[in-house]
Each structure stands twice: as structure tokens, then as C-alpha cells.
Amino acid sequence: MKHNISIRVNSNEYLVEADSNRTLLDVLREDLKFTGVKDGCKAGECGACSVILNGEIVNSCLVLAIEADGADILTIEGLANGDELHPIQKAFVEEGAIQCGFCTPGMIMSAKNLLDKTNNHPTSEEVREAIRGNYCRCTGYKKIEKAIFTAANMLEDNQNGRS
Amino acid sequence: MNEFEYKQLTSIKEVCRQLKESSRYTKVLAGGTDLFIQMNNGKIQPDCLIDIKNLNLSYIIREENGTTRIGATTNLNMIMESNVIMEDYICLSETARDMAAVQVRNRATIGGNLCNASPSADMAPPLIAMDAYVNIISYDNERKVPLSQFFVGPGKTDLKEGEILAEILLPPPYARSACVYLKQKRNAMDLATIGVAVNISLDDNEILNSVKIVLGAVGPTPISSIDAANYLLGKKINENIIKEAAKIAAQEAKPISDIRASKEYRIYMTDALVEEAMVIVWDKIRQR
């Protein structure tokens, strides 16, 4: 059964035709070419497909495209400002928190969600809880945690007009 | 996932009517975090999904008489963060926090956790320990069932054809009471290997005047540890009776061995976790 779906991704409107059984992940990657959103498990375990939907972070593999009709989505592609990386992306690069890079988009989206919700002041506990749903097979998570704190400081400095 | 018809309805009665009268295999869709996994591996292949997220069943309301009503499609993050839940039923907030991860909790619903009826469903033991009951709605009827009687087998509930779980109701907590849910699991995202909920209240002489011990993941459904609770009722709380009660509770567990743990481990850990939970709730009451 085909649906006409209207979806806003990274501030742009898209119209997609999709069957009921296609997930938001499928449509983002295959129809709209947002391949920064990764398919790791299709079971909501690994977090590689994490996107922010109407302000809340979700596994896009467990959301039907039709359920996202009329929704506002932010993917990793929506963070950088042209060539200028988002502070969270910069922090991940600076801290060496990226090895193969597969988990990175999901990790960064989780970090973005966390920093937005804690106004850039997360506790250690909150950082670990925020990335609980994002698997990394390469790094051992330490540098990722550090990068999130670094990003928090950078965002705080930006807010206060320091750089 | 197989192909299916998707519809979104805005009337509970209409959902119930279609569930009852449809000749096609129809399932209700809330968060989808269990349903889509089962559909992805072909375990279930419904012809039709009825999305119930627009039935206004996402709410947490404390009534004047102190009863709290939780709508069935309230997601787990809402439960975790709710002031009402944190004030009167903090155990439930802590339980939600320990489930899956934020991405799942933003979609997964309390009703879905209960209706999926996994033997290890984390919301079940603490809710049963807090005397929850559920409001079940059909096209022409409404009935209330204690949650302790809602589960009839692994993956099976008391819901009849054409019925949906609409609401979970919690009575106000007893004075001088505390509740905790301990979840033993292998890693951060795991289901419970063993789950233990304990809810006690003490009178002014430290006598246990109410005890609920509920075991999860150690039987086909959550198990109310009646013998252990009866042993404790009316006694003055102390370490020895706690240890004895934990032993009794472990005998009431009926676990199987599976990929997560052996039967023997589960029985051993039931004993350990009941003891630990009792110590925690005693401590919580003492510290007030």
C-alpha cells in the first residue's frame, strides 16, 4: 500500500512515495540519499541509524516512513554549515574519537540530543547513558566520551561569545 | 517486513471494532520497538497495522484521590522523566531508565511492554508490586483487571479479541513504603536475565505491614512470590528474616535455562536479588 509522505529533513521539504513497510531509515538512505544515516542492525540495538525526529532521538530503523509523515528530521548531514563542521564533529576529530567511522554519525546525533537537552552541561553519568544505545566496535568509547565533553565546552564558549 | 495496510485511527471504539470484525490478521501499532523486530524476522506477518498513537492515550495524571492513571501509549522516556512518577512511584522511573536506551525509550510504550508480555518485561514486576491494575476497552465494554492477573503465558495476556489495553492505574503508595526493581543483565542494552521487584511498608514499630515481591524473567510470566511475602508479613524487619524470605522466593521461581543464563544461576540470583532489594527498600524507608 503506497503512501504519499511529506517529510522535512535538515530544514528542507521532501515528498516521497513509499510502501507501508518501508522504514524511515530506508527512505532516508535510498530515496533521499542521506547515506550518513547507517544501517547496522535493523533491530534498534546499535544506534547507527539514530536521527532526531521532532526533537527526540530515535532509531530510524524502527520507525515506518509513513509514521514520519509531517515530521521534522535532523540527520548527521544537517549538522555542518556548508564546509564548516559543527562543534561536535570538530570535537570528535580533535579527540581522535573516530576510527572506522561507522558508529560516528549515530554517536554524534546522540551527543547533539544530549547537549541540547542538558544545555551543554551533561554529567559523566548522563554522557554514558546518552550513548548507551550506540555501539562502537573500534574505539572502546573513552575518546567518544571525552569528545562529547570537549564539544560541550566548545558549544558553551560559542554561546558566551568566546572562541 | 511483509507488506501490510497501515491505518491511523482516532477513536478507541473504532480500533476495537476493527480488531474484532476484521477477517484479516490485524495488529495494533504503538511504539513498534517490539513489533517491527518480530516482523523483520518474519515471526509475525500482519495484514494490517492500526496505529494507535493518535488516540490520546499518552498521559500521566494524578487524580485527586491519589490514584495515578498512565495512558497505554505513554513512552518510556516520559515515564522516566515524569514528576508525578518520580514523586510517588520513583521505582518506575528508575526501571524505565534501565531499559534499552534513549532512542528506544522515545518510541517504546508502557502498554506495548505489557502487551508484548515477554516473561522478562521490565515494567511488569514493579507495576505488579505497586498493585497496578489495567483498564481494558472493547467496543461495548470496559473492564479493570489487576496487572497480577493480566499475564497468562509467555507473550500471552488476558486481552480477548477486540480488546485493547487503554490505561494503567496505580493506587497511591502506602505511608512508610518503598519499592525497588533490580534487573540483572549481561550488558547495557539487554533484557533482564532476572528481575526482582520488592515493595514493602513498615508501621511505626518496624513491623512489615505490606509486602509484595514480584519476580521477572524466571517463569513464563511475572511471578508473585506469595510464600515469601506471607512469611514476612507481620514480622519486625531484620536481616535474618530478609535472608530467609529470599530463600523462599528463590523456591517460587520457575526459570528455564536459555541463551542468557542457566536455570541454576537464575535460582541462585533470585535469592541474592531479593535479599539485596529488601535491604535497599528498608534503607530507603529508614532514611526518610
Can you give a write-up of this model?
- By secondary structure, chain A is α+β, with helices and mostly antiparallel strands.
- Chain A has helices at residues 24-31, 87-94, 104-117, 124-130, 142-159, and strands at residues 2-9, 12-19, 50-53, 56-59, 72-74.
- In chain A, strands 2-1-5-3-4 form a five-stranded mixed beta sheet, sandwiched between helices.
- In chain A, strand 1 and strand 2 (12-19) form a beta hairpin.
- In chain B, strand 2 (26-29), helix 2 and strand 3 (48-51) form a beta-alpha-beta unit.
- The mean pLDDT of chain B is 97.
- Chain B has eleven helices and 14 strands.
- With 288 residues, chain B is of the alpha+beta class.
- Chain B has helices at 12-21, 35-40, 76-81, 83-88, 90-97, 102-105, 110-116, 124-129, 226-232, 239-252, 263-286; strands spanning 5-8, 26-29, 48-51, 60-62, 68-71, 133-138, 141-146, 151-153, 156-157, 164-170, 177-184, 194-202, 208-216, 223-224.
- Helix content of chain B is 34%, strand content 25%.
- The chains are: A alpha+beta (163), B alpha+beta (288).
- Chain A binds chain B through residues 1, 3, 19-21, 23, 42-45, 47, 50, 56-59, 61-64, 66-67, 110, 113, 129-130, 132-134, and chain B through 1-6, 31-33, 36-37, 39-40, 49, 51, 53, 77, 97, 100-104, 106-107, 188-189.
